[in-house]
Amino acid sequence: GAVVSQHPSWVICKSGTSVKIECRSLDFQATTMFWYRQFPKQSLMLMATSNEGSKATYEQGVEKDKFLINHASLTLSTLTVTSAHPEDSSFYICSARDFETDFLDSPLHFGNGTRLTVT
Amino acid sequence: AQSVTQLDSHVSVSEGTPVLLRCNYSSSYSPSLFWYVQHPNKGLQLLLKYTSAATLVKGINGFEAEFKKSETSFHLTKPSAHMSDAAEYFCVVSDPGNTGKLIFGQGTTLQVKP
Questions:
Q1: What pLDDT digit, counting tens, does each position of A86-96 carry?
Q2: Do A46 and B101 lie within an 8 Å CB cutoff?
Q3: DSSP letters along chain A, please?
Q4: Could you tell me the CA-to-CA distances from B31 to B17, B35, B77, B90, B95 in Å, in that order?
Q5: Which residues contact A41 (CB under 8 A, 6 or more apart)?
Q6: Does any CB of chain A come closer than 8 Å to the CB of residue B94?
Q7: A69 forms bridges with which residues in the sheet?
Q8: Could you report the per-residue pLDDT of A30-73, keeping only the tens digit for each?
Q9: Is the CB of residue B44 less than 8 Å away from at least one CB of chain A?
Q10: A106 in contact with B at a CB cutoff of 8 Å?
Q11: Can you say whether residue B107 is alpha, beta or left, with left for phi > 0 and alpha for psi between -120 and 50 degrees?
């Protein structure tokens, strides 16, 4: 089945530094990837839709200058948390759909998430 | 706009007894609905999906869900709970716009007691 690899699985950084999270589709191509954020004991909130070769589409209330998304190829999207602060500590999950075989109402394939802790 | 509401934030059952996790949806057109499971600090695994075919959908690990349009519900059931079923469950609806993003319910924590 389709596999989405997310790296790193966890990261600890100091306040003010930037952190990059990678999301790769291993055996399929994805023109669109989705980045979600999950606080403890809460649901997943869509942050942005990453579009290959173009700008990401951010959900309302998500700071695009803080959460930089780059989707440079059909198999890789990155999320960079810039000038991280403790309130950015969260679980970030990416997901993707195989654009060759999946329809828009098909389920997404999810990565295993990245636990970010900002000290 | 599409949305889902999971009616229970926490469900506790004994091992071997039935599981019922409730979900109601709101959609302006025929929805695509999913149930995902998340174990602690893990990504999400698809349990089952409804995409306008049979209203009773069978998934993995013995789970199934029934789409009831008249009740706008998509409840998840399992005849007999196993300890390994303890996890967080999400009812999800697809927003079939030009990106097909998924919209998540609030989640239900399933506790299975021995």
A1: 999 999 999 99
A2: yes
A3: ---EEEE-SEEEE-TT--EEEEEEESSS--SEEEEEEE-TTS-EEEEEEEETTS--EEPTT--TTTEEEEEEETTEEEEEE-S--GGG-EEEEEEE--TTT--TTSPPEE---EEEEE-
A4: 30, 13, 20, 16, 8
A5: none
A6: yes
A7: A79
A8: 888 999 999 888 889 999 999 888 889 999 999 999 999 999 89
A9: yes
A10: yes
A11: left
Q: Looking at the complex, does the CB of residue A58 fall below 8 Å from at least one CB of chain B?
A: no
* Residue contact A43–B94, C-beta within 8 A: no
Tens digits of per-residue pLDDT, B39-93?
887 788 999 999 877 889 999 999 999 999 999 999 999 999 999 999 999 999 9
- Single-letter amino acid, residue A23: C
Residue in A46, A93, A107 closest to B34 by CB: A107
A-B C-beta contacts closer than 8 Å:
66
pLDDT digits (tens, 9 = 90+) for A71-83: 989 999 999 999 9
CB contact under 8 A, A105 and B94: yes
Apex A5 CA angle, A83 and B94, nearest 5: 90
Length of chain A: 119
Chain A nearest-CA distance from B15, in A, is 23
Q: Which of A35, A90, A105 is the best mutation test for B, with the most CBs of B within 10 A?
A: A105
